Amino acid sequence: MNFKGHQPLSLIDYPKKMCTVLFTGGCNFHCYFCHNPELVVEHKKLPDISGTQILKFLDGRRGFLDGICITGGEPTLWKELPEFMKQVKDMNFLIKLDTNGTNPEFLTSVIENKCVDYVAMDIKTTPAKYPDVVEIDNIDVSKIDESIKILLNSSIEYEFRTTVFPEFFNQIDAQEIGHWIKGAKSYILQKPRTIKMLSKGRFNEKDIPLYTDVELLKLASFLPNCTIR
Questions:
Q1: 3-state SS, one letter per residue, for 79-105
Q2: Which of 12, 44, 11 is nearest to 27 (CA)?
Q3: Residue 95 pairs with which residues in a beta bridge?
Q4: Quick one: which of 19, 78, 167, 181 is 20 to 30 A from 115 by CA?
């Protein structure tokens, strides 16, 4: 298993934990607001960081780090990842996985094998708007729906999250998503990072429409267990 990025220490990527962050290359989405575009379109040009290197790093951080966060890109594209996760769990580290929810089979496997402790799943928008937001015409939203149900019915910690742009997230959308993930323990509205985006050309770079904090709070009021990050 090779990774394309490694942040040795983070205090924000795993709630209430000190973690190291691993970035996988490649993604099956092309979200124009992605703030890791190099992991989507140029990941093959980035140097590899082997799983062996990471395990050696973790061995030297026992008692200091609580765990790891695996993000991307889309980590569940990698068939080798569950075995790496098992090795990390055998070292008694916690594992948080970030995913877009398109691989429910992967989620089921790592949950059943106790290889993950926390999952952060992106809800990009309402089901009908997915093709436009992720720029994939034949997106199978049923896979995302299945992943939602897996997390809702699991015993592990999880959060759903949406990076919020007015273009695809209004009050009606918020209410529809709230119904879609009804019963969720945690839903996060994320403020966009507009300094680096995959397709800034979709907007006038000097005039990217964003919600104000007051507007975000109003949207959050329509959603259960919702916070703003």
A1: CCHHHHHHHHHHCCCEEEEEECCCCHH
A2: 44
A3: 68
A4: 181
In 3D space, the residue among 122, 199, 220, 124 whose CA is nearest the CA of residue 165 turns out to be 124
Q: Which helix (H) or strand (E) holds 160?
A: strand 157-163
Q: Which residues pair with 50 in a beta bridge?
A: 2
Structure-block tokens of residue 214? 């007051």
- For residue 142, give the amino acid letter: S
Give me the CATH number covering residue 61.
Answer: 3.20.20.70
The candidate with the shortest Cα–Cα distance to 115, out of 141, 144, 81, is 81
Could you give the angle at which helices 81-90 and 104-112 cross, rounded to 10 degrees?
20
Give the residue from 53, 63, 60, 62 showing the smallest Cα distance to 22. Answer: 53
φ, ψ dihedrals at 112, nearest 5°: -65, -35
Q: Are 78 and 1 in contact (CB under 8 A)?
A: yes
Q: What is d(CA 29, CA 198) in angstroms, rounded to the nearest whole number?
A: 11
Residue carrying the six token digits 């996988």: 24
d(CA 182, CA 56): 41
**Under DSSP, is residue 208 helix (H, G, I), strand (E, B) or coil?**
coil
Number of domains in the chain: 1
User: Can you tell me which residue has the tokens 């267990």?
Assistant: 225
Whether pTM > 0.85 for this model: the answer is yes
The first and second tokens of residue 52, run together, are: 């062996």
Average pLDDT, stretch 56-77?
97
pLDDT in tens, 196-208: 777 756 655 556 7
